[in-house]
Specification:
7 helices; mainly alpha
Amino acid sequence: MPYKRAKFAPQTRQDLWISSVGICLGIAVGMTFADIDLHMPDWLLPHRALFTHGAVVPVCLAWWFWHFRQQTVRGLTIGFALAHAVHLSFDLFPKAWRGYALIHVFTWALPPVLSWAWVAASIVCCLYLVRSFIRTTWDIWLSFGGILTGFLTYAHEGVVFPLIAFAIAGILASIIPLFPDSDYAHIRLLSE
C-alpha cells in the first residue's frame, strides 16, 4: 500500500524531536563519513572508495526508512545525505584527478571522467533524498544549518566551486520528479 508524503511527517511533538535528533546526528556523521577510509588499510578500504564517496549509504538509509517508518531514520537520512553532499561537493575539486583523487573499487581506480561523474551524481542523489524526506519547516531550518556548518567546516579548502557545484546539484535534484507516493503535502510547523 503506497504511503502518502504527509504520512511520513512527524505526527507528534515527540516525533518532531526524534527526527530533529536524527537530523543533527546525521549531519555530524555525514560530515566526516567520506574520510573514514583514511583510518583503514588500503587493502580493506582505499581512500575515495566507491562506498564512502557515493550515495550508497544515504540510499540504504532511505530504504531502511521506507521499510520501517522510523522518524529517527528519516531524520538521520536527511542529515547524513545533506552533510555527505556538502562533503562530496568539496571532493569534486581535487588538485588533480589522479592517484588518490580517483574513486576506487577495491584497488582498481575508475578513470577521471567516471570518478568525477560518480561524485557529481552522488551529490544530486543525496540532495534528491533530502528533498524527498523533508516534511516540516523545522526540517528545512535544520537542513540550512547543516549546509552552513558544512561549508564553514571546509571553507579552508575554498568555497566558490563547491558552492556552485552544490547549487547546480540542488537545482538538478529539484527538477527530478518525486516518487509517485511522495507528492508534496503541506510543509508545516507541527502545531499539536
